[in-house]
Amino acid sequence: MQFTIQTRDTAAAELKPVFDRVQKAYGFIPNLYGIFANSPLALHTYLGVLDLIDKHSALTPQEQQLAMLAISAENGCDYCVAAHSAVAAMVKAPAEDIQAIRDNTLPPTPKHAALVRFARSTVAARGFTPAEDIEAFFAAGYAQRHVLDVLTIAALKTLSNYTNHLAHTPVDAAFGGQR
To answer: Does the model's pTM come out above 0.90?
Structure first.
């Protein structure tokens, strides 16, 4: 199936202000958002949850991006791996941590390693996370709130990762160097 990448000009009229906000925030409209625009529900849900994560997560912006990157890599989503590699660098996550996730190894930063291990393990086990991964997560200084924040990020990434799998979303030029 071929998905249409909507633009500001082709999207439903109700989405034009959304596209304007995204354009202002990113300087362009990511192809994923153009795909999501085929369903106002999908676009509003994704952006709404992303905004809630930004405003209410106990995870730092770096931790949020590393979790998003780890989950996207675990789900095999090339588009989101490229996008979150770029955004993680923008929020100053350690380059060696980003590369480790991309290489399917654990980051050298111990706390980030526990986060990535927990995120990957939770996704791979479909929520039946092995006890040792949960214990390592808590031992690294995370709490129950962080568990639920990672699960919320996993829900968000499921929406985007699966959309990209189905739509074969082309990686934006802005993220292309991260492929």
So the answer is: yes
